[in-house]
Amino acid sequence: MSVLASSSTASQVYPGLVGFLVVAGMGLALYFLFRSMNKQLRKIAPGQPSSAPPGTARPPRPGLATYRAMQADQARAASDPGATDQPDSTSP
Q1: How many Å apart are CA 48 and CA 56, to the nearest integer?
Q2: What domain range is 25 assigned to?
Q3: pTM, rounded to two decimals
Q4: Is the residue at 80 inside a domain?
Q5: What is the DSSP letter of 86?
């Protein structure tokens, strides 16, 4: 019985120095990665799109109701090419 106890303790493996160095290296790499990311994010003004130059704002996007109204106008114009949006000046 003592033979089994001694052989099981001898076959246990511990992470050792190599495991510690791998984990420490990954932690160090993450530190520098996050530091660089924060530096880049500070360059972007809050609420500013990243592709627009500073001082310019993107026009607001139309809402769903405006989009559906534009689609209806386009469909109406496509179905009746002679119709215009201007009222007829000859009618009383």
Answers
A1: 8
A2: 15-45
A3: 0.38
A4: no
A5: S
